[in-house]
Amino acid sequence: MPDRPRAPRGDPSRHLALDALEAGARALPAPPRDDGTLALIVRRRADGARETPPAVVLGAEGVPGDDWTRRPPRDADAQLAVMWQPLAALVANGQPLTVFGDNLFVDLDLSRANLPAGTRLRVGEALVEVTPKPHDGCAAFRARFGADALRFVQAPATRALNRRGVYWKVVEPGAAAVGAAIRVVSRPA
User: Fold this and answer.
1) Please, are residues 137 and 154 in contact by the beta-carbon 8 Å criterion?
2) pLDDT of 152-172, one tens digit each?
3) How far apart are CA 58 and CA 181, in angstroms?
4) Residue 128 counted as domain residue
5) Does 106 map to a domain?
6) Would 45 be classed as within a structural domain?
């Protein structure tokens, strides 16, 4: 069996200490709650490289051509990995956001209070739904951004903020482009 391609590695010289991450997070402006923006689209290729297409049609594959389609089992609740772009930039500390394993970087409040599971959003022309699957940091996240970054995103006191991000699944396919509007359509009762 051939080896799986290696994902991008992080730069240990860019890892931030926990206190710097916390201070940086406090300095970020509050994200928009109902109307946001799609800041970046990332497709993870089979060879491990990352592409940043300016536009895609979100559909049954999530981001077309993304590695998610080649990794069984294809968990529909993990179809699109999403992270708040300003917080991702803080954690990356100068590294490209493509180092993360996420597909979409957005400017929108991803907290559990704002986007509980079942919330539906329009991303460009696509309709997506927040899934209940937690998006947690893993060994790859720790290697890319450091042990303190992993503690930062997994801290029980702030876990409901979804610092590591959330998962969305596509309900209705549609075009989405960098800069596209994201609008909350409905939240569960």
Assistant:
1) yes
2) 999 999 999 999 999 999 999
3) 14
4) yes
5) yes
6) yes
